[in-house]
User: Fold these one by one.
Assistant:
Number 1:
Amino acid sequence: MSIAFDDATRVFHLRNEHLSYLIRVLDNGTLGHLYFGSPLADEASYAQFISREFLGFDNRLGDPVPLEYPTAGIGDYRVPAVSVRQPDGSTMLDLRYTGHRVFAGKPALPGLPSTYVQAYEEAETLEIQLADTPADLEIRLYYTLFSDRPIVARSARIRNVRALTQVVECAMSASLDLPDSDWEMVQLSGAWARERHVVERQLRPGLQSIGSLRGASGHEHNPFLVLRRPTTTEEHGEAYGLSLVYSGNFLAEADVDTYGTSRVRLGINPEGFAWTLERGAEFCTPEAILAYSDAGLGALSDAFHALFRDRLARGVWRDAPRPIVINNWEATYFDFDEPKLLEIASSARELGIELFVLDDGWFGRRDSDNSSLGDWSVNLTKLPGGIDGLARKIEALGMRFGIWIEPEMVSQRSQLFTDHGDWAVGTPARPRTEGRNQLVLDMSRPEVVNHLFGVFSDLLGHAPISYVKWDMNRNITEPFSAALPPERQGEFFHRYILGMYELFERLTRAFPEVLFESCASGGGRFDPGMLAFAPQAWTSDQTDAVERLKIQWGTSLAYPISSMAAHVSAVPNHQVGRVTPLQTRAAVSFFGVLGYELDPTALTQEERIQVADQVAFYKERRDLFQRGRFVRLRSPFEGDGNETAWLTVSEDRRRAVVGHYRILNRPNSGPSRLRLRGLDAAASYSVSVWPAGDDAVARANAGVHGGDELMRVGLLVNSEDPADSRAAGDFAACLFDLEVA
Ligand code: DGJ
């Protein structure tokens, strides 16, 4: 790894074994983007890379250059990375290089989560200083190159050095110019209960974007996109991945100009954003992660998974094996009392489940979703011994105890609202819109954050609580903070997120041994910002196994399996009414952090035997399921989507588990083979089938097979035997357990 600056050509070359990133200080001092892609030899300057492809505009810069951090008003008519309204009302900026420094390691971002290093040798950082003299504005661009990852982490800081105030109206975390537009844009989009489906489109002239204006990253689009060549597959070809370490309003956009060049930008959504900088004040953007792969989407995902799992997630739970939970939500909803919870817990304990999570409904007068958020004192009618009493009884059963909270919200029917109605977000003289019968607390206000820290540190300090599910069930309407002056209302959304991060930071610091899981009506805020505090997230309220295939597949493009909480629930499924086999539900949930979300006392004896077997199977391979390398094999988004397959393989490639899923059973469809990847071609693997059976699939695959054979020929996944086919039915799953013989 090195970050070199050639004094003669004024080219910066960030280079490691996976990538090169080249920036040049042009003759007039402007910063031009030269290249980002496969590594180039170290010695050459590549100054000639200022590309003639970027045509079509007369500008103040001389060459029609691709700018490294573009501004508006200087003749580059594409979308800018930064825009600042100056005291005279103008917004154009003409940024010129003033200096740079390179240092070992990686700085933290003030008030914002970011990736980090544990030793200085893990990364080098380049800081480039730019200035616009008439505006008296300084911008510092940061590029961290990790020694052994195909990743550059970027952020920018904008500083007003003059007396009068200036207003930042757009501040992207990264902008990247590419000399052509022969790319497919891959995004993770959806809605509640069908989050992060893979959506692809070819880049076309003009703007194409995804984003959020909801105050949270949202169910609809994830702050992540990939540009891949049309020929790129899981194994081959070029792809860029861009991810924003942020949980609020974002924009990810590609701008293709008339000559077919592409600009991609990623950052806080400029819509509704305006940040006032007094003299000497600085604005810091969130961090953007830029990854490059010339070995397909699989390698791109590997890079994101390892970074997010090992250098974004923090604390003891980053590496610790995650417990198998039983969550009472779908078992009881709001209708429970202590005896019922203890029955669920003790029944789950007998099955080997490790941690009981008490979900919504334990506080105030919360018997439905229309009251009590904000009144975080236990409902003694339901739980006469309090949280402490229940937690101790759960611990006495040999389980750990976890609890659900929704800190950022308030119900109008609550004491908190009666006492502090002004803490709820709302625009003056306009009615407040409720979502799920609740309002949002103004997290931009320090007194709200302090209050919540007091309430939840009290809760966590007075009961043996090992796990917290931090939920957030509505987006923001009537955005406004009573604590901000009129000219600063454009700061509200970002200040909300900064306040939420501050609360999370304080709680995780005060209670480092607690495992936090984030949640937002399922996966409505499943983003890298949240992963920095909570190493796992409730992937989706959708617990149906068939629907989960798409959700978990899509999520895996960016996020490691250690971040995906996946629960086995009851049938008919509560979201879609589908009845799938218990083994299929488990076979999907295994590929993530396993949990159960059903009433174990309602299981038949045969089902209890199955669940106990599932729990034992998972525990025995927990490291593989939570920290293995996840390899996507057959996509639910391709063809008719009837089959999905993936595997997880240990780092030393000695163990793997393959999951194969078939939605509808098709008559007489003939046998088919599934070729594996990621194994050791030279090793021999003993293969067994789970659940154990004696059908043609089990007979054909069980035994010892070479890694080469499994990768080149594959496993038999569909039996041609009519009797097997009848027995399998719809929604079938089969796992193959591989271990070096
Ligand atoms: C939404 C979550 O996604 C569910 O799992 C559950 O915790 C409910 N909220 C409780 O209100």
Number 2:
Amino acid sequence: MPGLSKRIRGLTGGGDDGWGLFYEARRRKAAGQPILELTIGEHDVRTDPLILDAMHTAAKGGHTGYAAVPGILALRQAIAERLSESTGVAHGPDNVLVTPGGQAALFAAHHAACDDGDRALLIDPYYATYPGTIRGVGAVPVPVATRPEDGFQPRAADLDAAAAPGAASLLINSPNNPTGAVYNAHTLAGVARVADAHDLWVISDEVYDSQVWDGAHRPFASLPGMFERTLTVGSLSKSHAMTGSRLGWVAGPREAMSHLENLATHTTYGVPGYIQEAGLFALQRGADAEAKVAAPFRRRRDMVLARLEGQQALRAIPPAGAMYVMLDVRATGLSGADFGAGLLDEEDVAIMPGESFGTAAAGHIRVALTLPDEVFAEALDRLFAYAGRQMEKAHA
Ligand code: PMP
């Protein structure tokens, strides 16, 4: 076999990128062990049948040929309307490129923002694919650590220091995976200042914008002067339980979008038309349908927070959004990875160690709120029992 490119061989940065425990849990589950999985961000419900009906109707109606590369006009219009409303900045269809999921949008946005060898900032802890996405376009990921005591909100001074040696982009994610942080006005103003000072593209991953429990989501493009330097990433995966449909978008200034359309022509050649029709139908159902998909995560988040009372082993910064709770396990004396390994062995419960998301969430675990309430309650029983035992051991 001829040699493979450095770029593809270097994509993951080596090791298992913290996914070892996840794959081990999947292996045990496949072997028949009754593992309770609180790992990835996948709903416990499937896509609404009405959305599937719309997909079926579109496919039967003949929408199975190549669709317009940037996305069908009606869907781009619907996404533009949603963005105009949420940002207060007028968006038209020319500001929107439909992509196969938010992940492809993240890749396209970095492709547009970064040249080979450019520094691309991201906030640690981060969603697991971020560094590989950045390496995939030939740029260099530069994680900027946040602190639990700040509620994982990035500090402008840290961003400024990381940007100084010539960065091209800054990737933010609010509501945040894995921490559940929703960036406040102070944080966003700091990001805007740094972006202006260093002439950065801000790539704003807002795929959890329909899942906000405290405060309000502020789209980054809504900040004064920021629309021109922002590429906003969105998706129907989380808002409409459509993870498998692979439907997302990147939105931004018109000139950038025309280049992004060229990129789509040479990579994906668009998204299936029947999927886009289903996405259009889903968006047209309005905010109530999104609130219905989000409601179980709010309920389960509150279940976790209620459990935290009257015990010392686990702590949490109450997540203001998204479908996860980050728990601090440091009182047990264990790392997130060791806590997770023991929990899987002793209780058949799988979580993601904080160390899977960079270095800033070491000593934490991420619990996905993705099991039906009764099963979730059982998983919490086991999780808290295990944590209590570890705490006793640590103090014995
Ligand atoms: N961004 C974040 C923060 C995510 O958590 C995910 C999925 N887990 C994505 C982007 C990508 O989602 P999708 O490609 O399904 O739209």
Number 3:
Amino acid sequence: MTATVESNRQRGMSDAEVARKVDHLLSQMTLEEKLGQMTMVENNSVEPAQIAEFFIGSVLSGGGGNPTPNTPENWRAMVCAFQKAALETRLAIPLIYGVDAVHGHNNVKGAVIFPHNIGLGASRDADLVERIGRVTARELLATSVHWTFAPSVSVPQDLRWGRIYEGYSEDSKLVGDLGAALARGLDGRRADGGSGVLACAKHFVADGAAGWRESPIGEHAPQQGSTAPPQDLSPAAQPDAALGQWQIDQGISRIDEATLRAQHLMPYQKTIDAGVGSVMASYSTWDGIKMHAHRYLLKDVLKGELGFAGLVVTDWMGINQINSDYYKCVVASVNAGIDMVMVPYDFRSFISTLKEAARQGDVARERIDDAVRRILRAKLALGLFDQPIGDKSLLESLGCAAHRQVAREAVRKSLVLLKNDSQSLPLSRDLPRLLVGGRAADDIGLQCGGWSITWQGEAGATTTGTTILEVIRATLSDSTAIDYSPDGQFADDARAAVGIVALHEEPYAEGFGDRADLALSPDEIALLQRTRERCDQLIVVLIAGRPRIITDQLPLLDALVVAWLPGTEADGLADVLFGDFPFTGKLPFSWPRSMEQIPLAALRASDEAPLRECGYGLTC
Ligand code: GLC
């Protein structure tokens, strides 16, 4: 382990000493310095000089907020420029830089990208998830990033939701166990006294219980545009039609308090017990109140009942949805228990509005001091005051083979075998010929999914890693003839004992992934049929962020492997396809027969069993 940064606890600073340091610092701060600490700005909307001028406490890269060129070194240079400016302020309070490292340091080209949470849910391996957290923390610190907005501890109830794959499972206990494991891993202090980063449990609370057509965005929404616009403002990233499809995301959770507590609150208690230092409020609404203004749940329940002593941060422009009057948005959110606001653009307006609210007494000075105390405590606990710049020597290990081995293990353990007739799997290495069909068989971008290099993710050779086709080629003997066709249009003479088809979803994130229909598309069905006609055994590898409706096509297949969104290390798939490792993955979500069995409530009310139960998985 390289130079370790002693957290307060390792340095022997008791909580009392931390409190004294915080109070001493607070007593020296002006109101402007305090308000600056409560302000988080996105990296393309602020210059380093403004960090100093407005005492900004945090900068983030939203999805796709990458430097150009997108290299680890350039990331480090970008983050350090902001930090340098913060350290030149009167009290030299370090800023904290945050990103969505939700499956590795996934914005950075060359970083290891792990399976998305749904695949880790299939692994049910908390130790593995903790190790993923530790590797992710090291790759973050290599670029001097000290905060990730992970783990998502959503408990998704509707497979049509575009954030389904960010959830570990429909099972609250599994979500809590794996969310706590990631929090422990990210907070490296607990494991080996090493450097840690600030983890962030999100989105508080019950974001996974929002209902269909309840999103405040989308063609059905009552007031189009009255909500936070998506992050990437480039026209290509959010054509109006795509915005129109938002149906669930950021919507209304129509559940009673008993269900909220039992199903959606419990994972937060587990991550808090694991030491998570921040929580992000959800865009969603419960009991008629936006979560960003929900005083009962943020202050009384999260901070009071659950004893959360860390900081609560908003989502991207999350307070803007509270009211059409921005002054009321600021007052309602901060008084409800929000400590730091992800503005993320117009920081001047936020700071001046909060200053006016403080002057008017609409936001008490004690509330501001409590928010700033929580922020300073988190920065002190991270060791940011001692070492505000991440250890540069960690750059050498970013994307290294050892880190990729952890991701390869995660891919292996995430695979779920749903069908394996006539022992089609495992495959022999000495096949005379093999047909491989589907774009996703040779596309890193498709196997990574959303939140990968860009916010929405995209097809193509987007980063370093291995594709399914590459690892199949590397595993098979040289004598095997491989016919590859992205759309199944094989040569006339192409016929083989075995055919593999990789089906996929086009990458998506957030509401852009809200889907009314999860059935296979006509093109996917045609690809299956074209390949079926030319092989004796047809094996399907499904690259998707959720279960798809495949009931009608299942008889066509001899084997079905669910690979979810495996990330950059497809080697893990070959390890299992060719029998070096067994299938051990178990479904983290029930697999519906039809759309009529979605959401989960409909499935539970149905008198027909799902196609496969949550927890199902063949071994071989
Ligand atoms: C997004 C997401 C949240 C993410 C944040 C910063 O809109 O809702 O999960 O952490 O903004 O990118």
